[in-house]
């Protein structure tokens, strides 16, 4: 039975919002390290926290608009499995879910055609399985690989660079590198810039996401400076976390990184993408992140080319909310496996 509170179909405008073809932005080439700019960067923690406290709930969207935003959020998920016990079977199921993220009866009730997640994200060893599975399904979806000694980034430097090359050869078109936290914590911005430059060069045509591991950087000012240095060195995306730190994506860290992206865009004209990752598992949190992006960067950034969620379990909750939207009932979580 359908609840009186719900409408089963999204409006045409909302469906178009979820499915608009996007123009690929020009790739950030980077620039020379500008230490004057880096040193000038500050972060006012109490102002940032005040701003973030106003976010959850304030821009809440309802009914068919919420369904449309949730569909859009799905298209921007890097559907992730990064576990020591990953198997080819799990990765094949992940790819099947990424290719068809919402059950057909829910999609039909919403009046929406096929969508996919933004990418799948796996460890190096699982790249061939992911590439072959997606190819076999006839689905064009990027395979992202975590790299450079993920999650700590402390393996021998030449092996970190070589790991990137191996992953690109194996078919990954996006590489999520981890930075050396020690360069940030010791203020060695030149070393961070050089490392990021090497990683970007090793990626070739594959896009590079720089994982800052913000929970280990000590201060919001460090997060702001590391964001800027990675963008100067040519990062295509900056990403909060590996999902393995004790503190992963948060709104204050996101605000700092998003404003760094905005400053970099205003100074250079290049749009760098943003990927909050780790611990984002609820549909309502996804909506808060999208509202933050819309308010701080504008609609241009609300595309898979410039925004991704790094998440292993968010999709399950979004699908559950969409099912509630069309039926008026919540289903058990086991009905939404892999995501
Ligand atoms: O990059 C993605 C994260 O590792 C996923 O973290 P999560 O399992 O907390 O969603």
From TrEMBL:
Q: Could you tell me what this protein is called?
A: Deoxyribose-phosphate aldolase
**UniProt xrefs under InterPro entries:** Aldolase_TIM, DeoC, DeoC/FbaB/LacD_aldolase
State its Enzyme Commission number(s): 4.1.2.4
Its recorded reaction(s) are: 2-deoxy-D-ribose 5-phosphate = D-glyceraldehyde 3-phosphate + acetaldehyde
- NCBIfam families this protein is in? deoC
Q: What's in the keyword line of the UniProt record?
A: Lyase, Schiff base
Q: What class of enzyme is it?
A: lyase
Recorded family membership: Belongs to the DeoC/FbaB aldolase family. DeoC type 2 subfamily.
Region annotation (Disordered) maps to: 1-30
Entry-linked Pfam families: DeoC
UniProt-listed SMART domains: DeoC
Associated pathway: Carbohydrate degradation; 2-deoxy-D-ribose 1-phosphate degradation; D-glyceraldehyde 3-phosphate and acetaldehyde from 2-deoxy-alpha-D-ribose 1-phosphate: step 2/2
């Amino acid at each position: 039975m359908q609840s009186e509170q719900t409408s089963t179909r999204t409006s045409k405008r909302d469906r178009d919002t979820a499915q608009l073809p996007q123009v690929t932005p020009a790739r950030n080439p980077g620039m020379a390290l500008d230490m004057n700019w880096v040193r000038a960067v500050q972060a006012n923690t109490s102002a940032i926290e005040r701003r973030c406290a106003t976010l959850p709930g304030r821009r809440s969207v309802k009914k068919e608009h919420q369904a449309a935003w949730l569909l859009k959020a799905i298209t921007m998920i890097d559907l992730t499995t990064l576990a020591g016990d990953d198997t080819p079977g799990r990765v094949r199921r992940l790819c099947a879910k990424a290719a068809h993220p919402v059950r057909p009866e829910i999609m039909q009730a919403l009046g929406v055609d096929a969508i996919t997640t933004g990418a799948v994200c796996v460890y190096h060893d699982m790249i061939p399985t992911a590439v072959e599975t997606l190819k076999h399904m006839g689905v064009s979806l990027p395979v992202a690989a975590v790299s450079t000694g993920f999650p700590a980034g402390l393996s021998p430097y030449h092996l970190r660079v070589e790991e990137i090359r191996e992953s690109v050869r194996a078919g990954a078109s996006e590489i999520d590198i981890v930075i050396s936290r020690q360069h940030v914590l010791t203020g060695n911005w030149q070393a961070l810039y050089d490392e990021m430059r090497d990683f970007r060069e090793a990626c070739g045509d594959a896009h590079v996401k720089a994982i800052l591991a913000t929970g280990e950087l000590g201060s919001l000012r460090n997060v702001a400076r590391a964001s800027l240095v990675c963008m100067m060195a040519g990062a295509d995306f900056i990403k909060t976390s590996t999902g393995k730190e004790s503190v992963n994506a948060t709104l204050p860290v996101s605000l700092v990184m998003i404003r760094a992206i905005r400053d970099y865009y205003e100074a250079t004209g290049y749009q760098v993408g943003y990927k909050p990752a780790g611990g984002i598992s609820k549909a309502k949190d996804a909506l808060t992140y999208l509202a933050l992006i819309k308010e701080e960067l504008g609609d241009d950034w609300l595309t898979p080319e410039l925004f991704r969620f790094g998440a292993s379990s968010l999709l399950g909750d979004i699908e559950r909310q969409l099912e509630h939207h069309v039926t008026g009932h919540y289903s058990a979580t086991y009905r939404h496996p892999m995501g």
